[in-house]
Design brief:
single chain; alpha/beta; five-stranded mixed β-sheet; 4 helices; 5 strands; 34% helix
Length: 99
């Protein structure tokens, strides 16, 4: 799992499948999501973006609530999910996107 430390998101997601987690340190559901994301062992890179540190980036992707998770495939947004999700939902989404 990677944490965005500079605005290089497009470079990070340009090849392969990536799950970008827009979150905040103060967000309860975001904290509950962390162990689930850490347990996913599929072929997907997970990138965390703190919306308080990168508000312009969050705005660019239309983030209105957190957690919001965006799946990228080869640099293109393929799915956007709002709110808490269970592990099976992530695995199902990743499998569908991988096809």
């Amino acid at each position: 799992m990677k944490v965005l430390d500079k605005e290089n998101l497009l470079d990070l997601v340009k090849e392969g499948i990536h799950l970008v987690d827009f979150y905040a340190q103060w967000c309860g559901p975001c904290k509950m999501l962390m162990p689930i994301l850490e347990s996913i062992d599929k072929n997907v890179d997970i990138i965390k973006v703190d919306v308080d540190m990168f508000p312009e980036l969050a705005s660019n992707y239309g983030i209105m609530s957190i957690p919001t998770l965006i799946y990228f495939k080869d640099g293109e947004v393929v799915k956007k999910v709002n709110g808490f999700q269970d592990k099976n939902s992530f695995i199902k989404d990743i499998e569908e996107i991988s096809k």
